[in-house]
Amino acid sequence: MAVNAYIGIGANLGDARANVQDAIARLARLPGASLVAASGSYRTAPIDSSGDDYINAVAHIRTSLPAEALLLALHAIEAAHGRERPYRNAPRTLDLDLLLYGDDQISSPTLSVPHPRLAERAFVLVPLLELAPAIDIPGLGPASACLPRVADQAISKL
């Protein structure tokens, strides 16, 4: 059975814009998944980090992959872009986060869904709401209700 999943995409090292677009293309070719839609790209300042501005987007896929297998596939795409994890919130060539996996709430040693900071980040909420204006975050309710919490975070559509 296919599940709707939403993937947060971000990059601020190298050609960040090209890396985000390549990630979307790789998601479209991912075995066991099909790309439904991708948001536009957005520029945001780093949060709890340093470095250049980020380019962010969100992709909506339909997938038959279990959530953990999807996470491993996302890590493989990151690795193909030379992703390194020297410390928490380090600048990155590519970051792929599993934001939502159907209506599931998952808490395992390797995966938390909905993504734990989804409702606190404009760079996730704004492109997510571009794709799915009426979407609910399991356990939290309408994603649109979270927008006032992130109103002070600068974000601009490219």
The amount of beta strand, in percent, is 25-35%
- pLDDT average, as an integer? 93
Radius of gyration: 14 Å
Q: What sequence of helices (H) and strands (E) makes up the elements?
A: EHEEEHEEEHEEE
Largest beta-sheet details: 6 strands, antiparallel
State the separation between the terminal residues, measured CA to CA.
Answer: 35 Å
Helix content: 10-25%
Write a brief caption for the model.
The chain is of the alpha+beta class.
Protein topology:
Blueprint: E1 3-11, H1 16-28, E2 33-38, E3 42-44, E4 54-63, H2 67-80, E5 95-101, E6 106-107, E7 112-113, H3 122-131, E8 136-137, E9 141-142, E10 155-157
Antiparallel strand pairs: 1-4, 1-5, 2-4, 3-4, 3-10, 6-7, 8-9
Q: What are the defining features of this structure?
A:
158 residues; six-stranded antiparallel sheet; alpha+beta; two-stranded antiparallel ribbon; single chain
